[in-house]
Amino acid sequence: MRSSSPQLSAQSARFEPVRVIGKGGLGEVTLARDHDIDRPVAIKRLIGGSSDEQVMRFAHEVRTCGQLEHPNITPVYDVGVDDAGQHYFVMRYVEGQTLEMLIAQLASGDHDLLCEYTFERRVELFIGVLHALQYAHAKGIIHRDIKPANIMIGPYGEVMLMDWGIAKQTGAPPPETPIRRTPIRRPTICRPATHRPTTRRPTTHRPMIRRPG
């Protein structure tokens, strides 16, 4: 492993870091190669010197993402704490570009993209985001950071709503326990939401989306 690559300590035998693909005030996202399954993954971790409050916020993000198994939401594969005491979780690596990048390219007058992303296609992208929000809202989870930079468009046209770091679960108390040191070895597989036909309208309350948020 090259010394210039970001280190993942105890998990380095399985995950080979490739490059940093995102960095914020509290966390860093690294593209890595999972040698056990032979696929690219994204690893988000807290960067050193994190307070107890930051660790709890990170644990909240992990558990929020872990509850959301939907085709338009990035699935969580693994979670744990490495030997250096850094909290991390592993998720699907989504290739492609953000909606923010696409908007900039369309605004520049890129002819091929203008032909590809017609008005109808753009509406389909927006509907994909709304599907993710409808699913999350039905589980009582509010994203609170909807913006083009947090929406990924994959190579097959899939739309993924990313970064649930400041999401809030309505009526839920803050997490009381941090992430355990022993990593969870079995991945959480993302299963598409299924819809069973019914002969009558459900009597349970279904939240309506008035605007993204």
What do you see in this structure?
- The chain is of the alpha+beta class and 213 residues long.
- It is built from 4 helices and 10 strands.
- The protein has helices at residues 52-67, 99-107, 111-116, 119-138; strands at residues 15-23, 27-34, 39-46, 76-81, 87-92, 97-98, 141-142, 151-153, 159-161, 168-169.
- The strands form 3 sheets. It has a 5-stranded antiparallel β-sheet, with helices on one face.
- A hairpin with a 5-residue loop joins strand 8 (151-153) and strand 9.
- The chain is globular and about 50 Å long.
- The relative contact order is 0.17.
Salient structural properties:
alpha+beta, 5-stranded antiparallel beta sheet, single chain, 10 strands, 3-stranded antiparallel beta sheet, 213 residues, 4 helices
Short description:
The protein is of the alpha+beta class. The protein has four helices and ten strands; from the N terminus they run E-E-E-H-E-E-E-H-H-H-E-E-E-E.
Rg estimate, integer Å = 19 Å
Low-confidence regions: 1-10, 181-205
User: How does the helix and strand content classify structurally?
Assistant: alpha+beta
Order of helices and strands: EEEHEEEHHHEEEE
Major sheet details? 5 strands, antiparallel
Number of strands: 10
Strand line-up of the largest beta sheet: 1-2-3-5-4
Q: Give the proportion of residues in helices.
A: 10-25%
Instruction: Write down the overall mean pLDDT.
Output: 80
Q: Total helix count?
A: 4
Beta-strand portion reads 15-25%
